[in-house]
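ESCALATION

Customer reports they have been waiting on this structure for their group meeting. Please prioritize. Original submission:
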Amino acid sequence: MGTLICKHCNSTIDHFEDEKVTTLYSQCSTHCHDDDSEKE
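Update from on-call: job pushed to the front of the queue and completed.
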């Protein structure tokens, strides 16, 4: 069982089937990281 986590807000995005327990970090679709990019 694997878990996909947003690297910006740490919310769980999805779960997927895997042979071992895995945690992967990605970006969620709610654009929680857009505020950071506007400050640059």
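Sent to customer with the following note: The chain has one domain: 2-39.
Escalation resolved.
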